Amino acid sequence: MKNYLTVNNLSYSYPDGHIALKDVGFALDEKESLAILGPNGAGKTTLILHLNGILGNLTKEIKISNFEYTDENMANIRKTVGVVFQDPDDQLFMPTVIEDVMFGPKNFGFDEKEAENLAIDALKKVNMIDFLDRPPHHLSYGQKRKVAIASVLASKPKLLVLDEPGSNLDPSSRRELIEILNNLDVSKILVTHDLPMALEICKRSIVLNDGQITRDDDTLNILRDDEFMKNNRLELPYGFAFHHLGEE
Ligand SMILES: Nc1ncnc2c1ncn2[C@@H]1O[C@H](COP(=O)(O)OP(=O)(O)O)[C@@H](O)[C@H]1O
Ligand SMILES: [Mg+2]
């Protein structure tokens, strides 16, 4: 299906008057993976909080599989779009991992047994099935991150939105996360500062700067455009070489 998600002329000001989004527009195809890049304060988190209706008060500027963001569609939209917050501690609050991951499906009306099956499936996808009886708050940051992703995946969203999922991960956890995300058969929107991660997961990226989209292009084209990168305060890690990715 074309244009699975569309965002048209979306603007948003916080109650204090700060304009965080200005005329943001883009469309996403089904099964597409899109990265949202941009410096701190660009409006990335503000944008994705609109995608499952946390911010924006049922804005008409967004549609998902042709559903407008209206009151009556909201339950459906929350089920379709799963948002993984930047801080896993904002997502995990139950006494055990399995209860945390079952919480979403139960909330969406699945019975205990179905919710458990969905949770087990989701925990397998993030390599955390051996931790199901553990208290989430005793896990390492990387493990919490994976459980937070499972807790969203368990409700079977069609679009998975992740806010900086790679932050504070050691290199092997980061590598594992990239593999996990690349193996998920859903549409993805990935907000990240980790430009090589964006390149590995998302063929296409949009760049936000000061609340506006300054580019919507192949991730590779963006990362290779030194002048654009500099003007948008984006920087590849020191020593990054494109041929590490089989390029050139
Ligand atoms: N609750 C809020 N009230 C007022 N301004 C906010 C609030 N949250 C974020 N902002 C401002 O909105 C802009 C965009 O923030 P944010 O979406 O968090 O950016 P990013 O995720 O790209 O770092 C920033 O200037 C930020 O200071
Ligand atoms: Mg943010």
Keywords:
248 residues; alpha/beta; Rossmann fold; 4-stranded antiparallel sheet; 34% helix; 23% strand; globular; binds adenosine-5'-diphosphate
Your description of this structure?
The chain has nine helices and ten strands. The chain has a six-stranded mixed beta sheet with strand order 6-7-8-3-9-10, sandwiched between helices. Strands 2-1-4-5 form a four-stranded antiparallel beta sheet, covered by helices on one side. It starts with a strand and ends in a 17-residue tail after the last helix. It has 248 residues and is α/β, with parallel strands linked by helices. It is globular and about 50 Å long. Helices cover 34% and strands 23% of the residues. It has a single domain (5-233), classed as Rossmann fold. It binds adenosine-5'-diphosphate (ADP) and magnesium ion. The site of adenosine-5'-diphosphate has 12 residues, from helix 1. Magnesium ion (MG) binds next to helix 1.
How would you summarize this macromolecular structure in one to three sentences?
With 248 residues, the chain is α/β, with parallel strands linked by helices. The chain has a single domain, classed as Rossmann fold (3-Layer(aba) Sandwich).
